[in-house]
Amino acid sequence: MNDENQSEDNQTSNKNKKSNNNNNKPKDVKKRKSRRKKEDRVVRKIVLVIILALVIVGLIFGFSTYNYVKSSIKPLEPNSEESISVTIPNGSSNKMIGEILEEENIINSGMVFNYYMKFNNQDGFQAGEYVFSPSMTLNEIADSLKKGESALNQAKIAVPEGYDVEEIASDISEQTEFSEDDFLDLMNDDDFFNELQEEYPELLNDAAEAEDVRYRLEGYLFPATYDYQPDMSLKELVQQMVATTDSIMENYYDDIDDSDLNVQETMTVASLVEKEGVTEEDRKQIAQVFFNRTEADMPLQSDISILYALGEHKELVTYEDLEVDSPYNLYQNTGYGPGPFDNPSEDSIDAVLNPTDNDYYYFVADVSTGNVYYAETYEEHNELIEKYMDD
Questions:
Q1: ∠ CA(300), CA(219), CA(229), 5° rounding?
Q2: Which of 69, 263, 318, 371 has the smallest count of CB within 10 Å of its CB?
Q3: Residue 58: pLDDT above 70?
Q4: E-assigned strands of 159-220?
Q5: Enclosing H/E stretch for 227
Q6: End-to-end distance of the chain based on CA atoms, in angstroms?
Q7: Which of 137, 159, 183, 144 is nearest to 274 (CA)?
Q8: Would you say 256 and 267 are in contact if contact means Cβ atoms under 8 Å apart?
Q9: pLDDT digits (tens, 9 = 90+) for 210-228
Q10: Burial track 165-177 (b if 16+ CB lie within 10 A, e otherwise)
Q11: What pTM did the predictor assign?
Q12: What is the pLDDT of residues 84-117, one digit of tens each?
């Protein structure tokens, strides 16, 4: 009897516990929901604060940028009466011109100058020696650069396409007070080359490592017309030429990185293509012929290399000439040689980096017509020589 009562009491107690547990569950759920709501409100507040902060920062940055650009477009010193002489090298881009003007304290920002000119389609700027003032607007400077209005009285020195260092030296001596020896001494001045290499490393690093070259700057004196002032030093004149080469090569450095060539090899092959071909089509064909021969481990056999090795300029190359002992002799040596044989044009540089695919290993030019004929075999080549050259 007592056991039965005790059993009933236990059952009643268990029911009460279950009932109490069931009563607690809704309370726990409510507490969790309440906490989540509070957490959500806190997260939303944090997100709003972050967004608001970003908006404020963006507005401040935008306002600062606007003020910077606005002030950079205006004259640096509106009331200035100062006149500043500035040299704009041949081949200078808008970016380069902007940097020069900023360095000379003529404008506020070279970067703004560059983008302002691009946005307003301002181009066709002329190289030369100019006189500017910090009181000039960007539009006034652009007008002067396009018209050459502020250019000082100056001489023009032309470097023809395909001229080598010694030919340039001769021309310089005829047009300036500098002698051929002055020019050639500068070409052999290691300190001067090192200065240029430091300023144009992407252009001249490979040339600095080349061995057995006659002149390290051969190939890097871009053929163009240059401005010359009576008070200009020879170093300044040569630096114009190298700076122009670098500005041209900026369009090709990426292509060279993607090719099997370095800068020195590119300029070397281009210097051969410059003399071997006249038209764009022939230059691209000839460039590929050189690559085909190199890949087959055949010497390039270019007469241009023999003439450079001899240090002479003549119409016919003899069999005796082919025996000249020189690393520049590409009849006896495979590869491209130590370095450039002349100073090539942009067309020849472009031909080397964008050759026309072909299977030719030989070519011969008809001097009387300028036509170039190509052959895949030595037998075909001899037939072309007999047909077009023996007369």
A1: 160
A2: 318
A3: no
A4: none
A5: strand 225-228
A6: 143
A7: 159
A8: no
A9: 999 999 999 999 999 887 8
A10: bbebbebbbeebe
A11: 0.64
A12: 888 888 878 889 998 999 999 999 888 888 888 8
